[in-house]
Amino acid sequence: MGSPERIRNVAKRVAKWARAGHQMVVVPSAMSGETNRLLGLAKELAPTKPDDAYGRELDALAATGEQASSALLAIALQAEGMPAVSYAGWQVTIKTNNAYTKARIESIDDERVRADLDAGKVVIITGFQGMDDGGNVTTLGRGGSDTSAVAIAAALKAHECLIYTDVDGVYTTDPRVVPEARRLKTVSFEEMLEMASMGSKVLQIRSVEFAGKYKVPLRVLSSFTDWNIDINEEAKSGTLISFEEDENMEQAIVSGIAFNRDEAKISVLGVPDTPGIAYQILGAVADANIEVDVIIQNISKDGKTDFSFTVHRNDYAKVMDLLNTKVLPALGAQEVVGDAKICKVSIVGIGMRSHVGIASKMFRVLSEEGINIQMISTSEIKTSVVIDEKYMELAVRALHKAFDLDQPIA
Amino acid sequence: MGSPERIRNVAKRVAKWARAGHQMVVVPSAMSGETNRLLGLAKELAPTKPDDAYGRELDALAATGEQASSALLAIALQAEGMPAVSYAGWQVTIKTNNAYTKARIESIDDERVRADLDAGKVVIITGFQGMDDGGNVTTLGRGGSDTSAVAIAAALKAHECLIYTDVDGVYTTDPRVVPEARRLKTVSFEEMLEMASMGSKVLQIRSVEFAGKYKVPLRVLSSFTDWNIDINEEAKSGTLISFEEDENMEQAIVSGIAFNRDEAKISVLGVPDTPGIAYQILGAVADANIEVDVIIQNISKDGKTDFSFTVHRNDYAKVMDLLNTKVLPALGAQEVVGDAKICKVSIVGIGMRSHVGIASKMFRVLSEEGINIQMISTSEIKTSVVIDEKYMELAVRALHKAFDLDQPIA
Q1: Are A258 and A383 in contact (CB under 8 A)?
Q2: Chain A contacts of B7, Cβ < 8 Å?
Q3: What structural domains and CATH numbers belong to chain A?
Q4: Which of the listed residues A160, A392, B143, B345 has the most CB atoms within 10 Å of its CB?
Q5: A123 has a pLDDT exceeding 90
Q6: Residue B162 pLDDT more than 70?
């Protein structure tokens, strides 16, 4: 919601749904740039200390952005002749724990909301925020509005939770890399989780996890379509993230190709193969508050093994230093080598569970393109490879075509 | 509080007071321009209906400005090493009635605030807002931050309520009109009330009334002085609005000259002098939600009387029309005449109560300047005249000098 014009369009869209007989609860995000503006002011005032020190006040500050956009949306709806009321998190009440700037929702009281819905009102609830037991304002962290929407949908047992974003759905892969990428009409919760964790920026992974936990059907659709498109058309647009493998599920074995070039790989070579080495290496990394993604340990040879993992590229130098100065001497390992110019490419698909040979097909396709695989990691519905980042686009396009994800030629 | 730099200076000033051993409660206003920005957005979304229709949501919207500045001030104080905590009105709780956009404070729960003060924290409370019985956010109307500060000072039985403004105190008159105007060290509550109602923009009249009701000593002082001026000097700066006529009270008979050119005068001539005419005339004006200031009815002659009053200049045309089309025919009065080019000049002083001849001195001074008096209205501590607006500066300067208010030549 960037401008009065956009807020007005949101209001018209919501009013359209409400007039078609749907009880509507809307969870708006802050106006674009607002949260950054507020937190930027805070940063100017307190440049030296970490955010944690100011958690309570940062949350009180950041929460105002969604409060303002919620009230503005209520006004816009009322101006459209649609009864509407806005509530801050503490008014609903949305109870959270006390972890400022990254609170978790604990409970939602739906009584007030249900009464308003039954009275024919559109209910607007500030996303991204709640209140802890002490009556303090808390926020859920970036992307928290999506999480709020899903949690509220779960509490109200909503028919569907529509997430309006700046994309029109979930694609088989990034259309900027593969122009033939196809929008998926449905995607399973598990697949969405793998895609989100691979950096598909469509939805925050927390909101998908929440939806999975409470089995809230989520539809990702575009906020840029005209507000007055036919409601039946809009109801079927975007991508439905479904929790049931029903007959509507697309039956492709592989649903999409995810990729990510934000990672770096690090290998500790010649590690004595004794119990506890994984902890010795990764414990030190975790203590430095650095997240690790892929972890691979191969079988040992001559009592020595190689241990590899990936971290975010921004943490690469820090981890290399940590391993060389602290871990390597203690471990008696041979050497630490790393490479920040890698990428991770994954094939994701719930259909993989019942189909053998999918991974080997992936390796064959990459081999035919002359792409060397550096690391392999698999899960039930995903196979990931780490390759040289210069091959990323080539690999994604080749896999997208090989797994029949390209749009049919019309 | 216009910028991070200004917020930081406020924080340093507050910290100085706190470190000197004072328990400090701070009520910040929104960052300058913020409330107008928010309400401007609302206006764009709902241009046609009156604000009342959107009261609840306008309040939820406008309240965010003070919430943001309060959190920012808490962060700035913490960055200065001073423990601080911010509360929104609903967190204190500041209970108000349900009159959105112009709510009245009903009660303040000081328990949480006292506990924090006793724990050595600076407590920051959002001004301008509260919560009604239904848990809705309410705002107190423009200037409401001053009113909040006074109400909180009353609830906490504070030693003094310091109101930092863009002027350095209350003057004998507007220094832009009379360069010799002198800052008053103390002014009585009643005088301040008269000056505020005459358009001296130093303090909102509601906050002065509130201070009067609860006998909260108010000090008006400048927010532009350096934060690190000596604390004893700062504690004596500005103007103290006092509720006791003690020996420190300046003993001038007239404390100041107030003036106002926002008004217009209207006279209904040849009104049959029968009971109820004042109500017939002013009832219609009040029904149109128009405020009346001076009201004068002179003695009757031949069973007819003239009835005059002043209204805000913006309402002049509307009132003239209302009287001519509705009231005049029903009343059987002769004529309605009016003049928008007038001004009101008042001498104000608690000393007038015990001094006769003050009003007549005022009339003599004006007569010596050749200024014709059109209307006269008096109260215990004020005498006001309505004159042609072109004489305003002349009248103010002459009265300021005649009543010995000019600064002594050093």
Answers
A1: no
A2: 41, 45
A3: 4-247 (3.40.1160.10), 252-404 (3.30.2130.10)
A4: B345
A5: yes
A6: yes
